[in-house]
# Entry
Amino acid sequence: MAVLSSRYEDMSLHVLPESCIANVLSFTCPRDACRLSMVCSLFKSAEESDVVWERFLPLDYQSIISKSDASSMLLASASSKKHLYLMLCEKPLIIEGGKKSFSLEKKSGKRCYMLSARDLTIVWGDTPPYWRWNSDPSSRFGEVAELISVCWLEIRGKINATMLSPATLYTAYLVFRPTGGVYGLDYHPVEVRVGLVGSESGKRNVYLDSESGCKQQYHFVRRHTRIFNRGRIVGMPASEPARESDGHYPKKRGDGWLEIELGDFFCKEGEDGELEMSVQEVKSGNWKGGLIVEGIEIRPKEGK
Amino acid sequence: MSSSAENPTLTAEITKPSTEIATETAQSAKKITLKTSDDQIFEVEESVAMEFATVKSFFEDAPSSTDTVPLPNVPAKPFSQVIEFCKEQIKFKANPDETEKKRSNSEFVKEKTNEDLVEMIPVANYLEIKDLLDVLNQAVADRIQNRSVEYVRSFFGIDNDFTSEEEALLREEHAWAFEDVDED
# Structure
């Protein structure tokens, strides 16, 4: 009896012990836990504990991190599991010898990946007059692919669905930037698709060229007046706002690159198929060029 | 307070179907007497009491003890609810049915007030009832999901002990976590 009582004597009746609060918080999500650290100092201290953040990190985070050359540096500089979590949210970790980057979506802790251009299949990619490989200081990767000029534009990326967070709706994006001389991509949409290999999934048409804000303003007008003389449109005021939000035009990213939605994919619990994302424009027969491709990013759909 | 722990019909249900615990059947009539922090006496089926890891290890240390077991950190009100949960749980030990167990667990928490849940957590923690702790933690997490700091303070009955400067700093540091929070 003495054993029973003495072990827990310090526990008061009405205030939850810190370990209990930490346990409760570990059942919430990163966003709730961070906000609730403001409840009181006991909550703050509970929220900072490894018990909480160990559960918010992916189960196999250690094996993911071990795929990076920077793994030991990362683990050494992380003062706690929360710190490690935040580092993985803020700075993508380059893994698999520079072929991919891995990061966490801050609010949910879900996995995000970017496949570098080198990890993609780019038709004609290794043929110098068509594509060129450059290093780019603004890229997270060592190399980016510059589209000089092709008739047949085809880019494909694959990722195993087991690498993604289960029960999560993802969106894939092509991450790119126009060079000064983008051409051939303003009137002709490119066909994009996201889906499991071997499955039927919808294709969409999107536009890659929105080089400047000014040009983007005219997109809507231009596409609907393309039977007319192109010269007439240049000075025309924008009568309708650019439809930036419907996913048919590129959006500016926080890191300075542009991205265009390729499509959504719901990763079911236990899904082990291979997910394929593609961008192609092979129908018009036109030449096009002037893009720099950084890669394809796949991350949880915003607002989900 | 009369203990709600004994229920003859329930006892029959628990002990009958399982061959695995057949050897224990003879003992399962045995009752264990537990005393809460507010001096309430509970007589509980041994099979139910063995769900409390803390009590179980007490009897492992002293198998022949017939003493009343004091539970100095356990008030009667949450304890009777904990017993209610454990009685349901041992049914599933004899007849594992995950779907039914989930349904029963969610039924259990659904009818509990916020205060009930918060009071049961330290009891489940002290008695080391892992299944119940998981159920309670999940239930509380669901109820405070996307809620404001002020709401959660009143949920747990906790006073803010930060200065307004500290609070402002924390809010700034975690600004991303304060967007689109549900209204109280």
